[in-house]
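Aggregate trends can hide what the representation actually does to any particular protein. This step matters because it turns folding into a mapping between discrete strings. For completeness, the protein is quoted in full, as a sequence line and a line of structure tokens:
=====
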Amino acid sequence: MDGGDDLDEEIIKAKKTLEELRVVRRPIMEFSDEADGANLGIDKGLSRFAKKMPIFEPKKVEASSGEKPLLVNLDLALYKAKILARNYRFEEAQEILKKCINYWPEDGRPYVALGKALSKQSKMNDARAVYEKGCQATQGENSYIWQCWAVLESKMGNTRKARGMFDAATVADKRHIAAWHGWAVLEMKQGNIKKARNLLGKGLKFCGGNEYIYQTLAMLEVKAKRCEQARYLFKQATKCNPKSCASWLAWAQLEAQQENNPAARRLFQKAVEASPKNRFAWHVWGVFEGNLGNVDLARKLMKVGHAVNPRDPVLLQSLALLEYKYSTPNLARQLFRRASQLDSRHQPVWFAWGWMEWKEGNLDTARELYQKAVSIDSTSESAARCLQAWGVLEQRVGNLSAARRLFRSSLNINSQSYVTWMTWASMEEDQGNSLRAEEIRNLYFQQRTEIVDDASWIMGFMDIIDPAIDSIKRLLNLNKVQNSSTGEDMQFERVSGDPASGSGFDLDEFIRQKLSLDPSKLEIRLAAFSSKSTIWRSQNKNVSAPPTL
């Protein structure tokens, strides 16, 4: 019997051993029981491969062996998050980016992407926390995180903090051009033009020729009314990057200001050729043509811009104003309504809509729309303009105390607004308060910030661009050289003929080839969202002239 007992014990032990072996050989507890038989045949190499497979599925990563996913998955995840954020699916994008940070805490890209996504949702404090965590994780060596953090602080009005962040970004990487440029723009907004030029010069010194640096310098020259120097710098910007739509646009606006319309139109064409889907290019060109009275062309340009940027409210806002001026208020209302649906937090849409209703005599509706605009952000430049226009409305209907409060509120936001000060002074003078009107004018001149910007900086700065002192002197006309080659080069855009007849640019053909759109069907695209709506009818057609904005 003892021998039989020993045999039974050996059989039991063998069964237990086999059962344990089956459990050990099971790859992962993710497969069905039906596949158990097949699992026994998986060799060690295939088992290792199977363990790596779940890294492509975020939900299964936690069940894996804990190995770090391949770096290619970070690139794929960042791209997916970018697409989701672009389609306003922020929560999904944030979940992906948070997982990226958990797996790759030393990589700065997920922090930058997550911070930007939170900023777009106006979650500024959350974005700041993300940037701070990113700087700690990267030991302060990632210039991109510092730069994004600086931009965030600048938007929140924390100028001193923003300066510190920009400084940290340039210390982390002195070749980070966006940091130099962003810092310079910050100083420009604060009126520190000399400091801004110095920073832009350092950007060129450490990073070489850059379209954004040249473009910003050109804009400074435009403000200083040095048009020839501005043209030279714009030309440098477009040489650095012929596909820079922003540089072509800024240059076109300079020529438009100088009433050199053929050259401006040609530059607008360059802008849309550089970036056919750029909403700013189609919008600014359309506004330019509208101001010249080319209504049909302006309408077409804005419709093309809307067709390739259907979620942009600015194009519809400008088109609404165009239609109001040359068509009917009801069509303009439909466009304003659609624009407000696309982005309910875009202040200028509500402001412009309210202004139109004011002109139509619908005062209560105008007040409601103005109130909506101000409630979105009561500290923005748009809010200041809206309060000024609202003050004019109340002034015209005799509510002088309300008008004074609105003018004061507008100046609390932007104390440098010449239009608001003078409008208020004019109102007081009309009421016979000449002394009060003079006090208001004096207050403006006492508190205004005057920015002095001379040309002495150019001699040192231009050495970075072109060491040939003779060409610099010709550029600045310091020696008054007549018929110089440099002068002729800068003049060519200004004196060029009408591009519509000389350049051979065919707008309809461009739309067909580059955008795959049928110019004759743009009306259908816009009519798709037009719907029957309540019509506000003017109750007072004898409305005074619109406020000066």
Observations:
- The longest helix spans residues 2-25.
- The chain has 32 helices and no strands.
- Residues 18-43, 49-65, 454-502, 524-549 have pLDDT under 50 and may be disordered.
